[in-house]
Amino acid sequence: MKNSSLTASFRYFLVKKSALAVLLCCTFLTLNGCSGDGLHSEAKYEDRNVRSEMYKNGSLVSDEGGFSLLGDRTAKAKDQNGLGVNGYLWRATLDTVSFMPIASADPFGGVITTDWYAAPDAPNERAKLNVFILDRDLRADGVKVTVFRQTKTVNGEWTDAPVSAATSSQLEETILTRARQLKLAQRDSD
Fold it and tell me: What gap in Å lies between CA 88 and CA 1, rounded to an integer?
């Protein structure tokens, strides 16, 4: 009897040890399969043009080898005005719409929104502007103006009224002209 219980315990020990051996073998094969020539942790670019094209607008890791939360230092050196848009267009827009109350101005997004304005000589008509500065360069298509117009009805309610497309174009041209003047004035003072 004693011999049979020893045999049963020995079998149990061998089965347990075999299961552990199989588990270790599978773990080893799995980990070994993840290393070596199968997977690469870093892509290798033999052609420098391909690499420079991929990173022409920067990356999360700066070109100087460190992580940069503040962006590319060379881009900041090119544009020292601290705005997200062209400084001349921004200033020219503020100068052009200065007669209207400003509801909001976002220099990083390039959006200026005015509040409703009624001219003293036309109290039954009011206008509102949304100005979008679209580019960091001083270009003819770098500014977009949207004009909203309302008229007062006989019972005192404001209703939307049509706006001529020429009105937006004229305001855009006025802003561009003022931006060019500001740029020339700065160039002459330097």
Answer: 102
Give the domain ranges of the chain: 1-35, 48-78, 87-189
β-strands 158-161, 125-133 pairing: unpaired
Locus of tokens 């008509």: 125
Helices (H) and strands (E) in the chain, counts: 5, 5
CA distance 175 to 96: 6
Query: pLDDT under 70 in the chain at which residues?
Result: 1-21, 23-82
Indicate the average pLDDT of the chain.
77
> How much is the pTM?
0.58
Topology classification of domain 87-189: Alpha-D-Glucose-1,6-Bisphosphate; Chain A, domain 4 (3.30.530)
For 113-136, the pLDDT digits (tens) are 999 999 999 999 999 999 999 989
